[in-house]
Amino acid sequence: MTSRFLQQVAALGLGADPTDQQLGEVGRLMQDWMRLPRALPDDVMALPKADGQQELLYPLHVAHGKPALYLVSDGPGVASPPHEHTTWAVIIGLSGNERNVLYQRDTAAATLHALCTIDVKENDVIHLRADAIHATVAADDLPTFHLHLYGKPLAELAPYASRCYPAASAP
Predict the structure, then answer these.
(1) Which of 1, 127, 143, 165 sits a CA distance of 20 to 30 A from 115?
(2) What is the set of domains in the chain, with CATH numbers?
């Protein structure tokens, strides 16, 4: 099932900076895929969910220069500072609540301004363009368990700390 989904994504010919409409289509494909019985193999669904302050990252499909699929689980309350991926991302919730705060960069003032908050729960989708800046927190009392599809493997991005921004407000 995973390979079929990835073939559908490849057929879209997204490139390095797809439009919101194209990323929305990837989100719809993800939702359709997750509606299928046993969309993910039992061994994937049985992977441990984060406990306490754990942040777990399970690579499911990673190939050089191609979209990469990960299963991500953050323990309750785990937060990430505002950061950018420098590649596009589409995230679908399997369980738990990942609260995303999206930011706009004010280059003149060298600050970030919160634009909106989007909760990603079961079957919810969020997509982020390559230049998007967001912060996350595993809201509620449950760990998150979400699929993250990135435009390229995380190992091909600049180090995480170099892609983070200070912000006056947390998610």
Answers:
(1) 143
(2) 2-163 (2.60.120.10)
